[in-house]
Structures are given as C-alpha cells and as structure tokens.
C-alpha cells in the first residue's frame, strides 16, 4: 500500500483502466438522476480499489454543498477511520474519477486536501474550477499548497447527455455525437 | 433557536456576551467598504478613433449619417476647441483599427490616418468646412462611477448614466446608523462564537473563525458557527453554518455533538425534523457575517447557496471575495451577491500599540 507514492512509483492507470473506473462513476451519476439530483457521480480509487463513492445529494440534504465529491470525501474519511489509516496519507495517493469537471468549491476542497489526481468526464462551463470558469487547480494559492493534476474527457459525451436529460428532459439513451465536452445545462452543480 | 435582535436586542446581547467578550470588541473597528467588480475600480481604458477637424456645427450631420457609430455610444460625437479658430470642432469618425493604443496611453501610429475623402467618398462637403483627419485615443468603456466619468471626460467628452445605488456605496454611508448597529451586533456574535469555538477546538483553523447567518427580513439570527476542522479538514465555519441552516430546514448532513460544536443561543442543535419546512430554497436571501474573508471553497459554497449579501472583517491572503478572486462578481456564474468588508476588522493601531508596549 505504501509504494503508491505519486511521482515515485504510484499506481498510474492506462487509458483502458481510466475508462473502467469512469464507468463506475457514471453508474453513480445515473443513480443521482434517478433520485432527482443533478447527475454527477464520483469514486475515489486508492491502491487499485474503490475506497469511496459519492453522488450529488443537494436536494435530499437541502445543502447546496453536498456535491458528489464532498459526499465521497466524507465516505473516504470513514473508510480511513475503519481501516485505521491516515486520511492525509490516503488522499494524496488517491485518484478521483468524477463524471463532470469539479466545480470551483470542490476543486478548492480537493486541492486543499492535496488529492493526487482528478480524472473527469465533461467540462463544467457554468461552475468549473479546473479551467472552465477559474483555474483553482493551478492558480497561485499558497494556503492550498501545490497545483493539482487534472485530466478531462473520459466519457464526456455520456456525462453531458445525463445533464441534458436532467435539465431539459432529453432522453439520455439517444446518442448525441455532436456534443464534445460542452455543457449546455442551465444549472450544473457538480 | 432563532434569536431576534430587535427591540430586546440589548438584553439578548447582554445575556450572550460575557465580560471577557465585551472587552475584546475594543480591538475592532468598522471601516465598511463595498467589494465591487473590477469594472468599477479600473482606470480609463483606451481605443483608437479617427476624428476630423470641422468648422460648422450644422453640417456635421452629413458626417454622422454617412458614418454612424454603433459602438462606443458613451462618447459624444463632437468636441469643441475654441482655441482652434479655423476648425473649432473635432468630430469622431470611426474606430481606427489599424492603430493600436500603447501601454502608456498614447496612440502608437502604425499608419497615416486616411483623409475624409478616402474614408468615405460619399460625403459631400465643401473643402473649407473640413480640416485634417487625425487619430486620437478615446475612453473605450462607458464610465460606471463618477470617478471614472471624470477621468474619461478629461480624455474626450463622455456621457454618464449614474447608478445612484453604486454612487451611494462608493461615497457612503453604506448603512444607516441603525443598520450598522445591527450589523455590528451580528458580527459580535460571530466573533464571540469564534472565541467559544476555540475553547472547544484548539488548533482548529479555517478561512474564518466565525460565521453568522441572518434573515434580513425578520432580522433573526438563524445560525452562528465556528470551524470544526479538527474533526474534518473541510469544515470551515461557513461550511458548518450552511449545513446548520439545512438542519433548520429539516435536512443537513453533518453529525456534531456538543463537545465538538458550540451551539449559539440555545445550546442545542436544530431539530433534525421540524414540522415547519417553510425556509427558503437553500440560503436564498440570507445575509452572512464572517470574521475574515472566506477561502475559494467557502465562497463558492455561498454562491451555490444563493445568499443575498456577505460582510467580513479582515481580508485573507488567499481570500476569494476581494483578495485573490472576486467570486461574487465572477462573470458566467448563475448567482451574484454583494460583499462589504471592514465590519469590525482588527484595529491594527490598537494591536500596534499593544505590540510596541510588549516589546518595550
Ligand atoms: Zn462541486
Ligand atoms: Zn473556507
């Protein structure tokens, strides 16, 4: 477990593995949609295992900050307590797979915790903190520590299609091949 | 759990603040100022325009019909210069896209300004009416404040539609005496809760020490919270306060007990399930008081929560509501709110005196 240091000999999934993990996040996004929440889902992968998952719970909790990422962070903390491992140690060596680019709030939170890597699906033109609206992942913010690594574009079309279904009632099963990493929703809370 | 700081304000505050609390308020001073979008504080920005020297006011209509100026509507078309006897008028023609404005505010000539006949052969005016054509720098944006209007007018005659509300914020006073008294009382709650929080949570840290949420319509103080970062690194005061509002509305997700969280007013957490679920959507319309400028996470949490207004005391090095970002004015976001800073900020003249006396 301890040989997963990022920068040294950490777990670095290839394209195919990224896609496999993102599919797991996508299942959670669909679960959010079925529960009447903005369809965003995510998982934390540590030591080649899913150690936490989350999906949007804003409406259920009446709290606008209950985005998939923050829900999953809470679960990761519980996992660390259960396994008796240090949360800071684990999150620095974890990868977050999230269907939509983290918003400005979540990006600030994740960078504050010095997450190892974010892999996301579609970009978040309304609220995105990893480059779409602001560059919270990379801006010079001393209190948040070093920049955070982000990769986008895994199953972006599928993530957009879910969001469109939520906001415009479009069928997520109809393919929309024209959309590339563009979000057209009115409100996207990721 | 909601405390009304209205007619019984003094009594309630007196009961809440201990003598130690009251002493520490002397370290604070209010110098309220609005945190406005950069557009309101920027100096004059420039664009290159061509103009022509001209003699008679009457005939300049011939120019404006042939050369309408759909952009830069804030500029007056004609500038009078009575010292120029032959051509006392300067009339703007059109943007000069080939010339660039340079950094120092002077036009950087890259090409000769074309003559009026070259620019628009259709204009039919006698030669003695028209003088030379030139390129000049003009203000490129409509002025938003009186200061910007005065700076722009010194460059070229400019129109100004004054926003009375913005002018009042800039010239002050921002709040009436009564409003300021209320605002300071809410902030004193935030400072005091921060202090009680520190007693419970040593080494707890977050972007601000204390956060109070108020319904400005009823003047009710709904929630006061401090950071709980020892239990959870993301539970800054603002994040805790937002979840406590959700708890008041019958939901919420954080699970704190008395030993970790000092609950203002009643000493109890809001009931998990209340029969009345009449609260607004999230924190819509609420005012928030924080001791220091919130970080980017907390600031965006407040955007998501749709608050009406935020007051803070001191700026923070990585603050997102004025220092590193102005998230509350960020173009593209679906919600904006007002921010005022300097409400009960730490009085550095007082602490300076203290420090020097300690050193001596
Ligand atoms: Zn988010
Ligand atoms: Zn914060």
From TrEMBL, chain A:
GO molecular function: tRNA-specific adenosine-34 deaminase activity; zinc ion binding
Cellular component GO terms held in the UniProt record: cytoplasm; nucleus
Stored PROSITE patterns: CYT_DCMP_DEAMINASES_1 (PS00903), CYT_DCMP_DEAMINASES_2 (PS51747)
Protein name per its UniProtKB record: CMP/dCMP-type deaminase domain-containing protein
BP term (GO), one: tRNA wobble adenosine to inosine editing
Keyword Metal-binding in record: yes
InterPro entries: APOBEC/CMP_deaminase_Zn-bd (IPR016192), CMP_dCMP_dom (IPR002125), Cytidine_deaminase-like (IPR016193)
Source domain of life: Eukaryota
Keywords: Hydrolase, Metal-binding, Zinc
UniProtKB/TrEMBL annotation, chain B:
Top-level taxon of the source organism: Eukaryota
Gene Ontology cellular-component terms listed: cytoplasm; nucleus
Region feature (Disordered): 89-113
Molecular functions (GO terms): tRNA-specific adenosine-34 deaminase activity
Gene3D superfamilies (alphabetical): Cytidine Deaminase, domain 2
Transmembrane segments: none
Listed InterPro entries: CMP_dCMP_dom, Cytidine_deaminase-like
SUPFAM superfamilies: Cytidine deaminase-like (SSF53927)
Annotated ranges, domain CMP/dCMP-type deaminase: 181-340
Xref: Pfam families: dCMP_cyt_deam_1 (PF00383)
Annotated keywords: tRNA processing
Protein's GO biological process: tRNA processing
Family designation: Belongs to the cytidine and deoxycytidylate deaminase family. ADAT3 subfamily.
PANTHER family for this protein: CYTOSINE DEAMINASE FAMILY MEMBER (PTHR11079), INACTIVE TRNA-SPECIFIC ADENOSINE DEAMINASE-LIKE PROTEIN 3-RELATED (PTHR11079:SF156)
Protein name listed in UniProt: CMP/dCMP-type deaminase domain-containing protein
Lineage: Eukaryota, Metazoa, Spiralia, Lophotrochozoa, Annelida
């Amino acid at each position: 477990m301890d040989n997963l240091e990022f920068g040294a000999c950490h777990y670095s999934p290839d394209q195919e593995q990224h896609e496999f993990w993102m599919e797991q996040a996508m299942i959670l996004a669909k679960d959010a949609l079925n529960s009447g929440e903005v369809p965003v889902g995510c998982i934390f992968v540590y030591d080649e295992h899913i150690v936490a998952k989350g999906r949007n719970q804003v409406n259920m909790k009446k709290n606008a900050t209950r985005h998939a990422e923050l829900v999953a962070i809470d679960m990761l903390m519980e996992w660390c307590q259960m396994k008796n491992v240090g949360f800071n140690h684990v999150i620095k060596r974890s990868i977050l797979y999230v269907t939509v680019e983290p918003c400005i709030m979540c990006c600030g939170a994740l960078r504050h915790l010095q997450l190892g890597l974010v892999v996301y699906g579609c970009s978040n033109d309304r609220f995105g903190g990893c480059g779409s609206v602001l560059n919270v992942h990379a801006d010079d913010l001393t209190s948040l520590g070093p920049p955070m690594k982000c990769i986008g574009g895994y199953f972006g079309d599928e993530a957009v299609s879910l969001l469109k279904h939520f906001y415009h009632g479009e069928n997520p099963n109809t393919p929309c091949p024209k959309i590339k990493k563009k979000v057209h929703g009115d409100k996207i809370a990721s | 759990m909601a405390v009304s700081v209205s007619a019984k304000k003094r009594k309630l505050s007196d009961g809440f603040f201990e003598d130690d609390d009251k002493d520490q308020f002397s370290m604070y001073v209010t110098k309220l100022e609005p945190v406005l979008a950069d557009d309101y504080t920027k100096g004059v920005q420039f664009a290159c325009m061509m103009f022509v020297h001209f003699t008679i006011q009457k005939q300049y209509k011939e120019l404006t019909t042939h050369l309408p100026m759909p952009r830069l509507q804030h500029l007056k078309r004609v500038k009078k210069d009575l010292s120029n006897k032959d051509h006392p008028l300067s009339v703007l023609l059109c943007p000069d896209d080939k010339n660039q404005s340079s950094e120092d505010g002077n036009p950087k000539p890259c090409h000769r300004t074309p003559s009026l006949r070259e620019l628009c052969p259709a204009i039919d005016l006698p030669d003695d009416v028209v003088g030379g054509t030139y390129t000049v720098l003009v203000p490129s944006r409509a002025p938003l404040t009186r200061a910007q209007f005065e700076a722009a007018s010194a460059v070229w005659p400019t129109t100004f539609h004054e926003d009375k509300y913005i002018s009042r914020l800039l010239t002050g006073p921002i709040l009436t005496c009564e409003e300021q008294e209320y605002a300071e009382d809410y902030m004193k709650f935030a400072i005091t809760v921060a202090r009680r929080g520190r007693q419970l949570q040593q080494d707890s840290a977050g972007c601000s020490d204390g956060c109070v949420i108020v319904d400005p319509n009823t003047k009710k103080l709904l929630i006061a919270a401090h950071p709980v970062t020892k239990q959870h690194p993301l539970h800054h005061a603002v994040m805790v306060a937002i979840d406590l509002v959700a708890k008041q509305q019958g939901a919420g997700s954080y699970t704190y007990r008395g030993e970790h969280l000092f609950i203002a007013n009643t000493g109890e957490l809001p009931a998990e399930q209340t029969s009345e679920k009449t609260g607004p959507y999230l924190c819509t319309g609420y005012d928030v008081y924080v001791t220091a400028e919130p970080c980017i996470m907390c600031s965006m949490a407040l955007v998501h929560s749709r608050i009406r207004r935020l007051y803070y005391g001191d700026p923070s090095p990585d603050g997102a509501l004025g220092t590193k970002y102005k998230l509350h004015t960020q173009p593209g976001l679906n919600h904006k709110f007002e921010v005022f800073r300097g409400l009960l900020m730490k009085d550095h003249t007082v602490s300076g005196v203290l420090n020097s006396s300690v050193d001596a």
